[in-house]
Design goal:
Elements: H1 12-23, H2 27-49, H3 52-69, H4 80-93
Helix pairs in contact: 1-2, 2-3, 2-4, 3-4
């Protein structure tokens, strides 16, 4: 039995490749981006709202918006997390 080794972004280049795969619809890459970034997005919301359930809901919404927004995503050389947290910030404002 072959076990898959989870992807761990060790550099900006690795994450860029992961983002490209996710934007192409690769489920494993999408799942990995969620696994890597969802804890920090959840903390961002929880710290500001002090409501675990709302923070969980908004975290899910952010990743839905990421999936819908991949066609418009442009790599500007900034970390992918910067784009994620811009979306999260707009969720707080809404």
């Amino acid at each position: 039995m072959i076990h898959s080794i989870p992807f761990v972004a060790t550099s900006n280049t690795d994450e860029q490749a992961l983002v490209q795969r996710a934007s192409a619809g690769e489920p494993e890459a999408i799942s990995e981006l969620y696994r890597v970034h969802s804890p920090s997005v959840f903390r961002y919301f929880y710290f500001r709202l002090k409501d675990r359930y709302l923070a969980e809901d908004l975290t899910g919404e952010v990743f839905l918006r990421i999936l819908k927004g991949f066609p418009r995503y442009v790599d500007t050389g900034r970390p992918f997390a910067a784009w994620i947290f811009r979306i999260a910030r707009y969720q707080i404002i809404d």
